[in-house]
Design brief:
Oligomer: single chain
Order of helices and strands: HHHH
Number of domains: 2
Helix content: over 70%
Structural class: mainly alpha
Distance between the termini: 45 Å
């Protein structure tokens, strides 16, 4: 591929991404009320996505040896406790990841 093709591909991807981001604001701007289904999805989807991420992250966990499951479950516990304590998603995910990595590298 030459550079022109690469830059055109990037430009098209950027335009499509921006268009998809701006489209809801163009459709439901002004006096039009957002449909109830869209509002309900806005309430339900964040929890559903987090649940799917947890399942995805734990799908390859092996329970045959402690090194296969203790770091992952400890990381999940740290995420849960720190989120309930601080109510900060980024802090919780970072703390859980650090806990899991430290256990995997230093203990198991």
């Amino acid at each position: 591929m030459d550079n022109t093709h690469v830059w055109l591909t990037i430009a098209v991807m950027a335009l499509v991404t921006a268009g998809l981001r701006f489209l809801p604001f163009l459709i439901w701007s002004g006096k039009r009320k957002t449909p109830a289904l869209i509002e309900r999805l806005g309430q339900v989807l964040p929890c559903a996505i987090m649940g799917m991420l947890v399942v995805f992250c734990l799908k390859d966990t092996r329970f045959g040896t402690p090194s296969g499951f203790v770091p992952a479950l400890a990381g999940c516990a740290v995420v849960t406790v720190t989120y309930l304590w601080k109510r900060n998603t980024i802090f919780s995910v970072v703390a859980g990841t650090v806990c899991c990595m430290l256990l995997m590298q230093l203990v198991f």
